[in-house]
Amino acid sequence: MKKRQIKVLVVDDSAFIRVLLTQILENDSEIKVVGTAEDPFDAREKIKKYNPDVLTLDVEMPKMDGITFLKNIMRLRPMPVIMVSTLTHAGAEVTMQALTSGAFDFVAKPSSEVKEKLQELADDLIEKVKAAAHCNAGVLEKSPEKPQTNLEVKQDRHLIDLIAIGASTGGTEAIHSIVTRLPDNLPPIVMAQHIPDVFSTSYAKRLHNESKMVVQEVRSPQKLSYGHAYLAPGHMHMTIKVKGRGNNRTLWADLSDADPVNRHKPSVDVLFDSVAEAVGSRCIATLLTGMGQDGAQGLLNLKQCGATTIAQNEETSVVWGMPGAAVKLGAADKILALGKIGGYLISRL
């Protein structure tokens, strides 16, 4: 039996981009572009007509901006939406808003370097459209404004030296939902999220502004401190190293420009492996929603060192790729719903 094709509607005010994205997507036999639209009003009628499985949506649109249209879609006709975003600071801010508003993921908008990076764009777009078509759409529909109870811990010193978190697709909101609930007297938190460089800067600022703890993007070697969370930059691996001995022992975040691991830089496996070497059992590690399997082997290595390991469950993951791979490896001590992970971290301290 022939496999049903994934129906995609391409929405962009640029005729060139509409043609380019259509050609890229229809090069894959599993995808069918059922239509294109030049503005949100045109798109609204074609959504009714074609009933697409996935929408690609330009961030900057005439007549109605992409964020407003996205919010209308998620309210009236929820579906996986992939934002097409410019790799600029302004584009990063708007894209972060889109992810908060329920977008599945984003791809970089073709620029003047389109010929040099066309294959990279094509591979990224096709992979994300396929993942979007089979994602847990119910998670995307939930309101990001839903209030959650903040967590507290009485002790100021713990048997745990470090908390490590890794994520990919859906991870910006998953990490946000955990970190913004945590108190400011916890051991250092180190985080690897698959995200472009300019986007990681905006994301770290958002986390910092909405958290009790200090959140910062690591741009140079950084000594780790209690009450702080550290995000890997979008173009470098982050590793954890030990300096000094005894009472002078300190943990540091360092950066590496080595090749991508599992096709990613930063890689969760690189972070987790360095954490295992630095602190061993004195760690709690969590692997959240994301495509692929980055972080699964690293989580297993941490478990084998005696660390406490957690995988997000399938029901609350946008994509149960990375945590699902960890579960298959037997790498997770606990498989938890997203809303329960923060509380479990506190209980383990």
Automatic annotation (TrEMBL):
Root EC class: hydrolase
Name the Gene Ontology biological process terms.
Answer: chemotaxis
Instruction: Check the record and name the InterPro entries matching this protein.
Output: CheB-like, CheB_C, CheY-like_superfamily, Sig_transdc_resp-reg_Me-estase, Sig_transdc_resp-reg_receiver
Task: Specify the Response regulatory domain's residue ranges.
Answer: 7-124
Question: Which SMART domains does the entry link to?
Answer: REC
Task: Name positions with the PTM 4-aspartylphosphate.
Answer: 58
Q: Which reaction does it catalyse?
A: L-glutaminyl-[protein] + H2O = L-glutamyl-[protein] + NH4(+); [protein]-L-glutamate 5-O-methyl ester + H2O = L-glutamyl-[protein] + methanol + H(+)
PTM notes: Phosphorylated by CheA. Phosphorylation of the N-terminal regulatory domain activates the methylesterase activity.
Which Gene Ontology terms cover its molecular function? phosphorelay response regulator activity; protein-glutamate methylesterase activity; protein-glutamine glutaminase activity
Q: Which GO terms describe its cellular component?
A: cytoplasm
Summarize the protein's role: Involved in chemotaxis. Part of a chemotaxis signal transduction system that modulates chemotaxis in response to various stimuli. Catalyzes the demethylation of specific methylglutamate residues introduced into the chemoreceptors (methyl-accepting chemotaxis proteins or MCP) by CheR. Also mediates the irreversible deamidation of specific glutamine residues to glutamic acid.
Query: What NCBIfam families is this protein classified in?
Result: PRK00742.1, PRK12555.1
Protein name, as recorded: Protein-glutamate methylesterase/protein-glutamine glutaminase
Name of encoding gene? cheB
